[in-house]
Amino acid sequence: MAKCLIILLLLAGCTTNKKILVLSETAGWRHDSIETGVEAVQKICNEEGWEFTATEDSSKLISEQYDCVVFLSTTGDILNDDEQAHLKNFVEHGGGFVGIHAAANTEEEWDWFADTLLGATFVRHDPVKPLVVEVVDECHLSTSHLPSEWQRVDEWYIYNRIPENVKVLLMIEDKDGRRPIAWCKAVKEGKTFYTGGGHTKAAWQEPLFLQHVQGGIEWSITP
Which residues span the domain enclosing 150? Predict the structure, then answer.
């Protein structure tokens, strides 16, 4: 725990004046929690002193300047070839990417996004239910505030694979097996973070979940 505190202190103050772009465009199922989630991320950015832009237009990936892009429950094939190329270049040259919930149900036919940026894609889910979330990495910015066993209610995805070459942050286990539900990794010079939570409107009112998301964004923009 002392080591975690040292890391957090060293990182403190390194992420002010950052620009966060939240994309919530959908070309498939649209979650009714998106607007609630966008408002919650805006509040996080305001509290952290980060500049915030929200859009439903993927062309903003090219026209806007930002340090981190958040795909908040995006779905389907939403990026054209130029936008794909821009996102790949942005991340590989030091940008931050945060995928939330249905980001794993996005751009599934684009190998780089599915295999490299996210590491796994959505297959199906059971109805919303309570589960105990196991904290695997207690020192990450997105998890250091959490209890070792975190009881919460959400829609828990089953993915097409266990992501490889990632740092697993959170795990769950149910009748579909034991699997990661949040993870992160470096992508060349950039960073990518994914969390499977955030399906319900209620999730975006949970202080622990909001701090989890805040920590994921902060990690992605910290050198």
Answer: 18-54+64-221
Kind and range of the H or E run holding 212: helix 207-221
d(CA 167, CA 193): 9
The three-class DSSP label of residue 215 is helix
Answer yes or no: is 144 within a domain: yes
d(CA 213, CA 49): 15
Report if residue 38 sits inside a domain: yes
pTM for the structure as a whole: 0.94
Mean pLDDT of the chain: 95
- The answer to whether residue 8 is domain-embedded is no
Using CB atoms within 10 Å of the CB of residue 145, give its burial: 0 to 12 exposed, 13 to 18 middle, 19+ buried. Answer: middle
Instruction: Output the CA–CA distances (angstroms, integers) from residue 120 to 158, 161, 173, in the order listed.
Output: 10, 6, 17
Domain count, the chain: 1
pLDDT tens profile 79-88: 999 999 999 9
Alpha carbon 41 to its chain's center: 11
Task: Pick left, alpha or beta for residue 142 (phi over 0 → left; psi -120 to 50 → alpha; otherwise beta).
Answer: alpha
Domain with 192 in it: what CATH number? Answer: 3.40.50.880
Q: 102-128 pLDDT, tens per residue?
A: 999 999 999 999 999 999 999 999 999
Please say if the pLDDT value at position 187 is more than 60.
yes
Pairing status of strand 96-100 against strand 68-72: parallel
3-state class (DSSP) for residue 153? strand
**Does residue 177 form part of some domain?**
yes
- Report d(CA 23, CA 117) in Å as an integer: 16
